[in-house]
Amino acid sequence: MNTHFETRALRGRQTGATLIVGLVLLLVLTVLGVSGMNTATMQITMAGNVQFQEDAFQMAEDGIDVALAGKNFTTVNPTTVAWLNAGTPSDRQSVTTFMTATPVPDIAFSMGSSSGAVQAFHFDIISVGTSNPANSRGRATATHNQSFYVVGPSGP
């Protein structure tokens, strides 16, 4: 006969325990969810930055290719080439500069020169590539330097 009274007393002592355990579990799941979202956002930003850097790298390489393909090498003044409808000259450009002329050993001979000697003309190309110049957050710049020689007759 006392079972009814004991059941009611036992139920009174457990009131709210399930609610507290449920709230603690919900809090833990919320913290895990927020942490996962922060991690995902950071990884997306890092992947975007890698893409911007790769774009800048490829732009600088394209500048070297464009300068070499143009074959506009002069020993007087540096030659600047902008490509891909560059917005400002510093966005995508390559500058080819004459460095020095080196005599080639006596074995070489050129029919087009009066002396018959041959020289190697040393040039440097400095190419600058910028990715996504309209977006300041995703801007990356790469600068590449390529040296090469052009062999030709020495003198007039």
Question: What does this 3D model show about the protein?
Answer:
The protein has 156 residues and is α+β, with helices and mostly antiparallel strands. The protein has one domain. It is built from two helices and four strands. A four-stranded antiparallel β-sheet has the order 1-2-3-4.
Characteristic terms for this protein:
156 residues; alpha+beta; four-stranded antiparallel sheet; rod-shaped
Structure at a glance:
By secondary structure, the chain is an alpha+beta fold. It contains two helices and four strands. The relative contact order is 0.15.
SSE inventory with pairings:
Blueprint: H1 3-14, H2 17-70, E1 79-82, E2 92-103, E3 118-131, E4 140-153
Antiparallel strand pairs: 1-2, 2-3, 3-4
Oligomerization: single chain
Number of domains: 1
**Helix count, per DSSP?**
2
Give the helices and strands as they follow along the chain: HHEEEE
Helix coverage percent of residues?
40-55%
Integer average pLDDT:
78
The percent range for strand residues is 25-35%
Number of strands: 4
Which geometry do the CA atoms define? rod-shaped
Strand order of the largest sheet: 1-2-3-4
Low-confidence stretches: none
Largest sheet: 4 strands, antiparallel
The secondary-structure class comes to alpha+beta
